Amino acid sequence: MFEELSLKLESALKKVTGQGKLTEANISDTLREIRRILLDADVNYKVAKEFIDNVKVKALGKEVLASISPGQLITKIIYDELTELLGGGNKELQLNPTGITTLMVVGLQGSGKTTFCGKLAKRLSEHKRKVLLVAADIYRPAAIEQLKLLGKQIGVEVFSLEEKDAKKVAVDSINYAKEKNLNTVIIDTAGRLHVDEQMMLEVSDIKNLVNPTETLFVVDSMAGQDAVNSAKAFNETVNFDGIVLTKLDGDSRGGAALSIRSVVGKPIKYISNGEKLDNLEVFFPDRLASRILGKGDVVSLVEKAQASFDEFEAEKLEEKLRKNKFDFDDFLKQIKVLKKMGSLSSLIGMIPGVGSKIKNTQIDDKALIKVEAIINSMTKEERTTPKVLNGNRRKRIARGSGTSIQDVNRLIKQFSEMQRMMSTLSKKGIPSSMRNFKFN
């Protein structure tokens, strides 16, 4: 997410690092470069200009304390302005404490709208909401079936009608939710490949009929300024309440994310950075600003870990570490938990200072699949007692997992090194931070 933008900003900020003080000359040189970087990233021209002007006003005349460098000071100013540009503070989704909460989801076709409905339904269900998904996209082939498949995966009912009347589907779904004592309705409306009058009229009519608690606009962050233009058109028609940015895991230059909130004046509420139904994050402007500046996002990383780990299993693992009995079964559990937390590249991007170190490194999530295949091809004895893994056993495991003998040998070597590290940790005492991890 924003790797290229982060690296370019980091390079630009180095120009004032090490200088004795901030001057109008070195501030201007640095901000001129940052402005060019923002425009290259497809940030709206007016947004980029206002951002640079605000940073310049705050940077000029600032005294550089002995304890910090000019580079650190201007980085802090840029961080504050980025946070403000992205919305300042977190704006939570509004949910009615009593009665039905109706959430209407709008956007262009191909933006990830239907998938987002499934992700949001899963998230709200996990927070004890009784959710109904509504298939009001009656035009796109297989849209209803896609939503039903998502509903089946997460155990959420999907409401649809045979007749091709999106307004009737939306209205009838509210009555159905009341009958079934469901308190949250998520309406997936139809999209088009571009903004057109018929589409806008339909979403406007649906909004007037169901009077949603919130209307969410889903936008493909890879669409650049087209995303900003469609957001303006939708906001003028339906006056939506919040924005959802999807496909942030793609090769996005970041311009839409940095422009859209400022242009339409509506908060970003969620970001989606993967295809899995767990890949949905509540949006925090300060955390994204930190990621963009290469400072990581430890808070989100910890939250992902806490959501994926189980306290009882953590205690069992701690006991195994103390007795130096960490085996391949334990290793496999950790891999499964790691996969639940998201893609490796998104997790690594949350670690401060790592982005620039891995800029030329390909992070392949399929590597975890290969490791799982190798471990699953082992017998129970081989998993719990790795020292029995002789040459013949390793050949059999390679054949069974569809990998090479070199892959198997590499994994066993890495695991042995991990065991030795765990043994050392157990002798010195397990850090209290590890006890907060929860495995399942």
Question: Can you describe what's shown?
Answer:
With 440 residues, the protein is of the alpha/beta class. It has 3 domains: 3-85, SRP54, nucleotide-binding domain (Four Helix Bundle (Hemerythrin (Met), subunit A), Up-down Bundle); 101-293, 3-Layer(aba) Sandwich (Rossmann fold), CATH 3.40.50.300; 302-435, 434 Repressor (Amino-terminal Domain) (Orthogonal Bundle). The protein contains 20 helices and 8 strands. It has helices at 3-13, 24-40, 45-59, 70-85, 113-126, 143-154, 166-179, 197-210, 225-238, 255-264, 285-292, 298-308, 311-322, 328-341, 344-348, 366-376, 380-384, 391-401, 405-428, 432-435; strands at 101-107, 131-136, 157-159, 184-189, 214-220, 242-246, 268-272, 280-282. Strands 3-2-4-1-5-6-7-8 form an 8-stranded mixed β-sheet, sandwiched between helices. α7 packs parallel to α8 and α14 runs antiparallel to α16. The chain is flat and about 70 Å long.
Rg for CA atoms: 25 Å
Portion in helices? 55-70%
- Overall pLDDT score: 80
| Strand percent estimate | 5-15%
How would the global form be characterised? flat
Counted by DSSP, the helix tally is 20
The largest β sheet comes out as:
8 strands, mixed
Distance between the termini: 28 Å
Spatial arrangement of strands, main beta sheet: 3-2-4-1-5-6-7-8
Can you write the helix and strand succession as a string? HHHHEHEHEHEHEHEHEEHHHHHHHHHH
Q: What is the CATH class of the largest domain?
A: Alpha Beta
Summarize the structure.
With 440 residues, the protein is of the alpha/beta class. The protein has helices at 3-13, 24-40, 45-59, 70-85, 113-126, 143-154, 166-179, 197-210, 225-238, 255-264, 285-292, 298-308, 311-322, 328-341, 344-348, 366-376, 380-384, 391-401, 405-428, 432-435; strands at 101-107, 131-136, 157-159, 184-189, 214-220, 242-246, 268-272, 280-282.
